[in-house]
Amino acid sequence: MARAYNFNAGPAALPLPVLEKAQAEMTDYAGSGMSVMELSHRSKEFQAIIDAAEANVRSLMGVSDDYAVLFLQGGASLQFATIPMNFRREGKTADYVDTGSWASKAIKEAKVTGSTHIAWSGKEAGYPRCPKPSELDISPDTEYVHICSNETIGGIRYTEFPKVDNLIADMSSEIMSRVIDVNQFAMIYAGAQKNLGPSGLALVILRKDLIERESANVPIFMRYSTHVENASLYNTPNTWGIYILKLVTEWLQGLGGIAGIQAINERKASKLYAEIDSSDFWKCPIDKESRSIMNVVWRLPSEELEEKFVAESKKAGLIGLKGHRSVGGLRASIYNAVPEEAVDALVAFMKDFKAANG
Ligand code: PMP
Fold first, then answer.
1. Quick one: pLDDT at residue 1?
2. Test site for ligand 1: of 149, 152, 292, most ligand atoms within 8 A of the Cβ
3. Residues flanking ligand 1, CB < 6 Å
4. pLDDT reading at 166 higher than 70
5. What digits encode the pLDDT tens for the residues 64-76?
6. How far is the CA of 77 from the centre of ligand 1 (A)?
7. CATH level 3 topology of 25-254
8. In this structure, which CATH number among 3.90.1150.10, 1.20.1250.20, 3.30.200.20, 3.30.470.20 belongs to the domain 256-357?
9. pLDDT per position as a tens digit, 253-284
10. CA torsion, points 110, 115, 121, 126, in degrees to nearest 10?
11. Whether pTM exceeds 0.90
12. Enzyme catalytic residues
């Protein structure tokens, strides 16, 4: 079987054992005579799937009963809109940290519905790093502080999270890749299509007391309380996505949970950064302490060489290495499901490319 070395930023590589299990169960899930896609979302078979998915998220991440675990539609982008609608009360302010493209999109959406204070911005410097907690200028009466914990396009991540009362984090591109303390956050959310499963599904971990702030002016479907009260089954959810997320979380448990995958992720990232740092031919524009271990970005001496690198790597079976169109350069997304062997193949390709073009 031919499997590409897939470095796509999202949708991205999924674990092969998960795809194989889904394939084996495709036409007859657990003796039901139906695919998961054909099951009623109100059936006992699907209820068992969503219950297991939630239990896996809770045990892997250490999520207490103070938090709801939700499986929602609209991706991470809908959360950009619904967070301020629900949790920033009339006449109040919310704080946002601007670390790059995705943090900026959340800010843009927050500004549509109310007062938005920028607690820190890396924009003028070209977003080379995440801020230290002490650098943030938080409004005294802020409703919450929003961060993007890992910038998928910029390739930066926090080493230390801000210590504030109501911290909300977009963890789309690094969820379940490293051990974090959920209790530091009021809310964590992530689009599934990088580390959790297919697109069209967002995982939301929400401290339940936040719901008390909700206003009756928010459309019912856009209220988090609606989805908490109905345990993510208010309407028809992305049943297939939840099923794959259940398989992905089982796969993670088999690897020793998040601590297990973190060790693998750190090893993969350090192999790639070691090659990048080994020569002036490559240049990583990110400050060392902020370097992401999920999205590794780097430049070559010219755009022509970057184009050549992308074309030749593709021919060698290495897919998705072109940097995002807004920033250029190269990017390797090395999410949980990207095998170490793929990183080894990339590093070997880089060494050959450097020898031929350096
Ligand atoms: N936040 C981050 C950090 C992302 O990387 C992305 C998608 N690349 C999004 C939000 C938007 O996610 P979605 O497409 O699921 O709305």
1. 65
2. 152
3. 10, 75-77, 102, 148, 152, 170, 172-173, 191
4. yes
5. 999 999 999 999 9
6. 6
7. Aspartate Aminotransferase; domain 2 (3.40.640)
8. 3.90.1150.10
9. 999 999 999 999 999 999 999 999 999 999 99
10. 50
11. yes
12. 102, 170, 194
Distance CA 130, CA 287 (A): 9
Distance 264 CA to ligand 1 centre (A): 24
2 pLDDT band (50/70/90 cuts)? confident
The average pLDDT across 145-165 equals 97
Query: How far is CA 262 from each of CA 161, 163, 293, 334, rounded to the nearest angstrom?
Result: 17, 23, 9, 12
- Looking at residue 301, its pLDDT comes to 96
User: Could you identify the residue written with the tokens 């991205």?
Assistant: 12
CB 149 within 8 A of CB 292: no
pLDDT at residue 325, as a whole number: 92
| Residue closest to 78 by CA, chosen among 241, 236, 222 | 222
Separation of alpha carbons 84 and 89, rounded Å:
8
Nearest alpha carbon, ligand 1 atom 15: 75
Distance in Å, CA 45 to ligand 1 centroid: 30
Average pLDDT taken over every residue of the chain: 97
Question: Is pLDDT of 159 > 80?
Answer: yes
Domain boundaries, given as residue ranges, for the chain: 25-254, 256-357
Selection from 194, 153, 191, 186 nearest residue 169 by Cα: 186
- The pairs formed by 257-261 with CB atoms below 8 angstroms and a separation of 24 or more are 257/60, 258/60, 258/61, 258/176, 258/177, 258/178, 258/179, 259/179, 261/176, 261/177, 261/336
- The closest of 134, 20, 141 to 91, measured between CA atoms, is 141
CB 332 within 8 A of CB 352: no
Give the Å distances, CA to CA, from 316 to 178, 275, 307: 30, 18, 14
First to last CA, the chain: 34
